[in-house]
UniProtKB/TrEMBL annotation:
<keyword id="KW-0732">Signal</keyword>
<protein>
    <recommendedName>
        <fullName>LPXTG-motif cell wall anchor domain</fullName>
    </recommendedName>
</protein>
<keyword id="KW-1133">Transmembrane helix</keyword>
<keyword id="KW-0812">Transmembrane</keyword>
<feature type="transmembrane region" description="Helical">
    <location>
        <begin position="345"/>
        <end position="367"/>
    </location>
</feature>
<feature type="signal peptide">
    <location>
        <begin position="1"/>
        <end position="34"/>
    </location>
</feature>
<keyword id="KW-0472">Membrane</keyword>
<feature type="region of interest" description="Disordered">
    <location>
        <begin position="144"/>
        <end position="165"/>
    </location>
</feature>
Length: 376
């Protein structure tokens, strides 16, 4: 019985000692493992500048209730081959004084730009937390910068020009010069007319401008752009296809029992026309008719009377003779004036004139076709 009692007592002592030892280890080791930093890095080549870009990340860990820390030591180096150089990293530096500017459990990142000749970079730090704990080690990370990091050549600049050539009804040519919005350079245009005169224009991307060439110089047009071998346009501009010519004035004549009557009708889209009527007996008469109007002149009817119309646009006019109608009352015409015709008789004369016009009798051209231009 005594031996069994002694055995239990020794086992109890060993167990108690082990428990005390483990408790001591926990008390010493727990704070140390709860405060620590982790340094990591990534690297990439910026081909726009030909530089290495290293992104450093520091994770600080601490027990609950510890929110901030600072750096008490920072060692940053770059290497070109075996040659090391001490450098600084913006945003990672030793903190002086009592401030703890960095937040626990929130990763701190900083960017470091390095010349493309650098082959390696390293960073080591030591942190101190606001509860007074100081990092025992010196956590470090090294990043190898393998391969080449060259700046890419600048993108070539080029215009994207177009040109349109439009002639109006007067023959004036408008050349519209465009440079596309996605062009990467100005378009330098030269517009040369038939006489060799050149007009120049520089057009920025996404913009346009126009130049005009007078009709007398617009028989041929050439549009060129600097840096482009072939002209955008080289030749004769197409004539305008939307031009409207004015209507032609028309003329009719009518022999009544006692008169030779001429009428000129000018359409609304015509131009003012002036005609002179010269009889072989008596004085000439001149008639001017505005667009959209009509006018008449008359001469006393008598045997042998002829009247010759003349004016701008009339070609080879021929004399027109008065011919006495067969249904005239005795004593009318031929120099023996009768009573004035009114009422139904006058209406009959007018109707007769229309009938003659309808069957094509007595038409003559009072003016040649003139061009009347309309532009949009």
């Amino acid at each position: 019985m005594n031996r069994l009692h002694a055995l239990f007592r020794r086992v109890s002592v060993v167990a108690a000692g082990a428990l005390l030892g483990l408790t001591g280890v926990a008390l010493v080791a727990s704070p140390a493992s709860a405060h620590h930093s982790v340094v990591t890095a990534t690297a990439a080549c910026d081909t726009d500048t030909g530089e290495w870009v290293v992104t450093w990340t520091i994770d600080s860990k601490a027990p609950p209730g510890v929110d901030n820390y600072k750096f008490v030591k920072v060692v940053a180096k770059t290497y070109v081959g075996d040659k090391a150089t001490d450098v600084t990293i913006p945003g990672i530096a030793v903190t002086k004084g009592k401030n703890y500017p960095y937040s626990v459990n929130t990763p701190l990142t900083a960017e470091q730009r390095l010349d493309n000749t650098v082959t390696k970079a390293s960073l080591a730090i030591r942190a101190k937390w606001e509860n007074g704990k100081v990092e025992r080690g010196l956590p470090e990370e090294t990043v190898e910068l393998g391969g080449t990091c060259d700046q890419k050549p600048p993108a070539p600049t080029s215009p994207k020009p177009t040109a349109s050539v439009v002639s109006d009804c007067e023959g004036v040519v408008t050349v519209t010069l465009n440079n596309a919005a996605d062009a990467t350079a100005k378009a330098k245009f030269t517009v040369t007319d038939a006489e060799g005169s050149a007009q120049k224009a520089n057009v920025k991307p996404g913009e346009s401008t126009s130049v005009q060439v007078p009709a007398e110089k617009a028989a041929t047009i050439k549009v060129e752009v600097k840096g482009i071998d072939e002209p955008l346009f080289d030749g004769k501009p197409a004539p305008a296809d939307n031009c409207v010519e004015p209507g032609e004035p028309t003329g009719t004549y009518q022999s009544t029992c006692d008169e030779l009557i001429f009428e000129v009708n000018n359409p609304a889209d015509g131009e003012t026309v002036t005609t002179t009527f010269t009889p072989n007996k008596g004085e000439p008469q001149t008639l001017t008719v505005e667009p959209g109007q009509s006018g008449t002149v008359s001469f006393p009817g008598e045997e042998g009377l002829t009247v010759t119309p003349s004016g701008d646009g009339l070609e080879d006019p021929e004399p027109i003779a008065w011919t006495k109608p067969e249904d005239c009352a005795p004593g009318s015409g031929g120099g023996e004036p009768g009573l004035p015709l009114t009422g139904a008789a006058a209406g009959g004369i007018a109707a007769g004139a229309v009938v003659l016009l309808a069957v094509g009798g007595g038409l003559f051209v009072m003016a040649r076709r003139r061009k009347l231009r309309f532009t949009a």
